[in-house]
Sequence to fold (720 residues):
Amino acid sequence: MTKKGRLSARRARTAWVFLLPSLLVLLLVAAYPLWRTLQLSFFQVSILQFPLKPSWVGLDNYKSLLADPYWWISLKNTAFFTIISVILETVLGLGIALVVNTRFSGRGLMRTAMLVPWAIPTVVSAQMWRWMYNDVYGVINDLLMRVHLIAHPLAWLATSRLALPSIIAVDVWKTTPFMALLLLAGLQSIPDELYEAATVDGASAWQQFWRITLPLLKPALLVALIFRTLDALRVFDVIYVMTGTNPTTMSMSVYARQQLVDFGALGYGSAVSMGIFLIIAIFAAAYLVSLRVEID
Amino acid sequence: MKAFKFLAVASLAIAIGSATMAQGVTLRISCGAVGQELQLCTDGAQAWAEQTGNKVEVVSTPNSTTDRLALYQQQLAAGSSDIDVYQIDVIWPGILSDFFVDLNDYVSPDLVGKFFPRIISANTVDGRLVALPWFTDAGLLYYRTDLLKKYGYGAPPTTWSEMAKMAAKIQAGERQAGNASFWGFVFQGKAYEGLTCDALEWVFSHKGGTIVDDKGDITINNPNAVKAIEQAAAWVGKIAPPGVTSYQEEEARGVWQAGNAAFMRNWPYAWSLGNGKDSPIKGKFDVTVLPKGGSDGQHAATLGGWQLAVSRFSKHPKEAVSLIVYLTGYNEQKRRAIKGSFLPTRPALYKDADVLAANPFMGKLYDVFVNAVPRPSAQTKQKYNQVSSAFWTAVHNVLIGQTDAATSLRMLEQQLKRIKGRGW
Fold:
């Protein structure tokens, strides 16, 4: 073996030694639960039995999952929620990031203040919004009626075509600051000289945005999109607090919780969790592939 | 010398005895917190604690029965000994029976005989008595006597359509008189166990059965049930506020007790609260049996009620049993009936003059209470929660106008068949 080969082999060994602790932690908190969930998904077992009496059912849980219309409804709701909320959050977040990136007095204060919605725990802000949306005493109806946008109070969360959009609005309110912050970091890494040169060459602000800002922001934008999409696919708390297990707004996670906790169906609930895991894994893989292409 | 020795031993024994007596044990009881429930539960538990030298801590739980069951299931499945005594719904003995002690081992058949036999049998699973009945419940129609008189009605409605007509007329009149937020009727329309109770009353009163019949057959997909659900959906937005599809008991009582509704469907607990000192509608309302579904229908009230059970993981089962025997005893139930209008589970209390003076309706509607319609929890056993959830979801979808009753009940039948599988 050459000297160089020995050196790199030693380096690789050292690398493994340093990686070992985090790999062990990952095995413990991610791989083991996933393995247990996969195992349980082939059993019929109820938490209501004492002691537990699991019975092997093979793929039955997965068959009933595919046959349950409420699973497909929750999948549809989650997809709708994810697409609309991520688009709105990205567009608004980019706008806010561009504004906060310019120089104006009170910029520091502004950057701190915009994080307030993000800092409030979701359970608290969702409950707050639930009261604001109330059809009888809610402030939103009151305001909209005062400016004559609506004639009668609306039952925002109790009307099927309004409920999910109302929840999306809360999520956009809450998560846009997070998007703005990630994009702001990306904006600040773009060197000022590029803009100066462009200005000298006579490029308009609009051209500068399309030719300089957006291409250079792409990596940051992609990372932000991955974060938000994966988060939105797992959405639980904002929906559970505002409308509970109502199928008009039920997400995949709310459906899984209902099976696991309300019905105590440990086996079937595990099959649901595996379904969610697969869907999210597909998205994550797709993003990672596109990210690698973009960054390279 | 011998006498001295005896004295020493005796005094030592007394000292040890009183030391353990004075220390006592600490029990935890979970109580509901709807209306004045929590206060009454705390008072009762403290009275027992003082009598026996033990300590009781009261744990309050979510108002929604559905959320409360989820919480209990998590506690019990984890084998937690944190809570000794659980307050459980009349539909839960079949779901949770594995986790409670058999009270037959602790109390005499004589004591068990003091309760309504039907409620005792609802609490008996495979021969094990898993809980003692604390109070029973039945859905009632609350109506404003002053408004009925004002609009020329001599008696409360006997059918649902009569009720809807009266509600519409009173609502129109009261709004014209300046109360813009007045509604004809409020009930429990949120997608949770309470809607199952309300909808079962609509369906049963139209002779549409009990979702699953006594033999375990699924019967909900029938024309009478369709008619009943359709009728209820037509109330939403017309005589009931559009938001009623997100109301639980307390939201309905909020509208009613503020004087903003002519009729309300609720449990008896709202009686004493509505007649409280600071209630705007004090003395202006009465209760009666819920209307029939058409002239050839029948009156129906869903059987509710709460029981007390002792966890099998409790470290002090003897003391816990003593606590629930005290709380379900004659005197404590009498106190709760007078102060909180909770329906007693001992027949003897319906002949008690003090109870009847505080709650005249208890004597008048005695037959309604003993003939209340049970939800199909005995047939569907551990799957009851899934059945009920499927039912309330199907009804809720109709109430919010997402689908029509015929389609919804047809889908529900399919879903119930899937849940039933090879058997309940």
